[in-house]
Amino acid sequence: QVQLQESGPGLVKPSQTLSLTCTVSGDSIISNYYYWSWFRQPPGKGLEWMGAIAYSGSTYYTPSLKSRTSISRDTSKNQFTLQLSSVTPEDSAVYYCAVGRTPREFGSRGQGTQVIVSS
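Now predict its structure.
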């Protein structure tokens, strides 16, 4: 059974880059044709798909965040990472990593990590 765990700072200052890591256990991020994704849910709002990295290494991003988002992976550690640049308070949210058969599938996921953008 695949398990995912997000990690990273809970507080980020405006204009800085938010960096989160998802550590995967129980499966390899380069196998089984899975897509490894990042989602977020701001307070009082719905779930938003941010982007994904495929088993092949190809990346996909939601258009509204594409200019500020980068998803990469470290296959030796079985981890994938989200970087979101130039953050503002509107980027405050609970961030989730997830795995699915498509880039936007919210399948098995981590417990989520809250990130607050504030000076």
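The longest strand covers residues 18-25.
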